[in-house]
Amino acid sequence: MIEAGIIGGAGYTAGELIRILLRHPEVNINFVYSTSQPGKPVANVHQDLLGETDLQFSGEINKEVDVVFLCLGHGNSVKFLSENKFSEKTKIVDLSTDYRMSREDHSFVYGLPEFNIEAIKMANFVANPGCFATAISIAILPLAKENLLKEDIHINAVTGATGAGTSLSETTHFTWRDNNFSAYKSFEHQHLNELTQSVKNFQPKHDAEINFIPNRGNFSRGIHATAYTKFSGSLEEAREIYQEAYKDAAFTFVTDEALHLKQVVNTNKGLVRLQKFGDKLLITSIIDNLLKGASGQAVQNMNLMFGLEETAGLHLKATYF
């Protein structure tokens, strides 16, 4: 069995990881580390796990585990790893932004399996993509891969309240979020950096604008993204490009049907739909921000790193009604 540790165990992404790993056929949860909840039952915080596990939050770390998931706030993973050294055999999956940008000062591989699967299989350290970045990447990277992003890209995406994490703020309170909708960080969201990096990895000379408007929705989980750009080919040609890009993908699928979030919430799936309007190609993509956009993709990456079946532990069912 793979011995796993979770750092930052009280948050939403850690809760999703615990739910997945408790049912994973090849994994044992060795510890769930939390500075705010040490000694308390995990089910006190992740209350749906009552009766499913006797795990308690730990104030100590086992540095000999096989894999560690970092579920820390952005900026805290670098600090944590500078203060805590794991064994040479320990693989690390970081769910924060800290290691997503390629730099010489770290050896983390960007963990988007649809486009980086072979590097992930060989990696000891993986930077899990951001939720918006995942949804938008599966929408536009097939075009970049074929050097077909010639014009500006316009993206509008809405995420559920869980995308903001468990810490309360003015815009996460129920009374503010309910019956409400708003844009935020227009043209400057932090996921733009990794999205631009991914596009340039495939299309180095891409210099058109990537215009991204993120929005807050009044629902708990899921991301619905639309992107459009000029495309000189036909809809059939676009479909062929996307079908080829995802022919071996374990969780990303192309469909002609209209998309809505209930198709993917509580699953690790990404769905993509293509439409042509004049000279513009409209790409719609949907994911669950906590699963394909975070913890589910983290387990998908772990499976690849350990040579397991990519879908192991991830046969999750959408809650449709």
Automatic annotation (TrEMBL):
Classification via SMART domains: Semialdhyde_dh
Enzyme class: oxidoreductase
EC number: 1.2.1.38
Gene3D superfamilies the record matches: Dihydrodipicolinate Reductase, domain 2, NAD(P)-binding Rossmann-like Domain
Pathway, per record: Amino-acid biosynthesis; L-arginine biosynthesis; N(2)-acetyl-L-ornithine from L-glutamate: step 3/4
Database matches in InterPro entries: AGPR (IPR050085), AGPR_AS (IPR023013), AGPR_dimerisation_dom (IPR058924), AGPR_type-1 (IPR000706), NAD(P)-bd_dom_sf (IPR036291), Semialdehyde_DH_NAD-bd (IPR000534)
The reaction(s) this protein catalyses: N-acetyl-L-glutamate 5-semialdehyde + phosphate + NADP(+) = N-acetyl-L-glutamyl 5-phosphate + NADPH + H(+)
Active site feature: 131
UniProt-annotated location(s): Cytoplasm
SUPFAM superfamilies noted in UniProt: Glyceraldehyde-3-phosphate dehydrogenase-like, C-terminal domain, NAD(P)-binding Rossmann-fold domains
Sequence ranges assigned to domain Semialdehyde dehydrogenase NAD-binding in this UniProt record: 3-123
Example GO molecular function: N-acetyl-gamma-glutamyl-phosphate reductase activity
Keywords: Amino-acid biosynthesis, Arginine biosynthesis, Cytoplasm, NADP, Oxidoreductase
Family as reported in the entry's similarity comment: Belongs to the NAGSA dehydrogenase family. Type 1 subfamily.
Purpose: Catalyzes the NADPH-dependent reduction of N-acetyl-5-glutamyl phosphate to yield N-acetyl-L-glutamate 5-semialdehyde.
Protein name: N-acetyl-gamma-glutamyl-phosphate reductase
Highest classification ranks of the organism: Bacteria, Pseudomonadati, Bacteroidota, Flavobacteriia, Flavobacteriales
